[in-house]
Prior knowledge:
By secondary structure, the protein is of the alpha/beta class. It has helices at about 50-55, 130-140, 160-170, 180-190, 205-210, 225-230, 265, 285-295, 315-320; strands at about 5-10, 25-30, 40-45, 75-80, 90-95, 100-105, 110, 150-155, 175-180, 195-200, 215-220, 235-245, 270-275, 305-310, 330. The chain folds into two domains: about 5-120 and about 305-330, Quinone Oxidoreductase, Chain A, domain 1, CATH 3.90.180.10; about 130-280, Rossmann fold (3-Layer(aba) Sandwich).
Amino acid sequence: MNATNHQFRLAARPVGMPKREDWKYTSEPVPEPRDGELLVKVLYLSLDPAMRGWMNEGKSYIAPVNLGEVMRAGAAGRVVSSKHPGFAVGDYVIGHFGVQEYALSDGKGVAKVDPKVAPLPVYLGTLGMPGMTAYFGLLDIGKPNPGDTVVVSGAAGAVGTVVGQIAKLKGCRVVGIAGGADKCRYLVEELGFDAAIDYKSEDVKKALKAHCPKGVNVYFDNVGGDILDAVLTQLAMHARIIICGAISQYNATGPMKGPSNYMSLLVNRASMTGMVVFDYAARYGEAAREMAGWMAAGKLKSREDIVQGLETFPDTLLKLFKGENTGKLVLQVAAE
């Protein structure tokens, strides 16, 4: 194939908010697959808060991206050449293909998807890693009961929107915490949340007390920091907290802010549990089938915030940390 593959490679470990100079925009010839390999043309990239953590050195749930490597990212694409028995030219697939136009793969971690069932970007959001995170984090760790009050932070993001909707399907009262009047309106008017708190203009602690008079039974935390501390003051007895992420802390240049109200866990006999979606990989199919059924029945809505152009990657990624996206942030690399 006489084509060029453009890529973003990690050039430096960011300090604070990532900047364009932390990556190097490179190009190389598109490779040909060898026996047992397939070549994927990347159509859409999944942009996720976790990518910020992957850029750091140090122990984590997954090895960091090494300097000089193509930046890790989930993606959806089309097979354009294959010497792999499990994949044919024309198959649509998802996998960790990286921030580039073409990806060579041995097929591990690659799954076929059907764009007739759902548009490709949905497989990066509600039917992808964010949706799996919401499903297993809420249902397996949060264990919501009908009538419970469920609070979710980062509620207008890719994970939070799904958490809230699943909680409603399970008969819970749902309160979302998000930044800005437009996002809060979207949560209540379009997704059916019972209430939304605008952390940019409201006192979160006072608003939680008003909207959760019997306390918080389940808290799905995507942001950490001050909001986690505020929720800790409003826990119901035997509350369950799911620690999914801490986006408010990812770009901190000083010590990470931990919860100062953690004694509330003892007083309320509550639990706080970390959640990594990769632990549930063997059950992804189960979650995808149920959520696809909810979507087909109109019970679960999906929203993608799609930005065009691989070259915009550094700036587009920062939308996550500036709170500028609603729903799943996706970068379109090429036309389908």
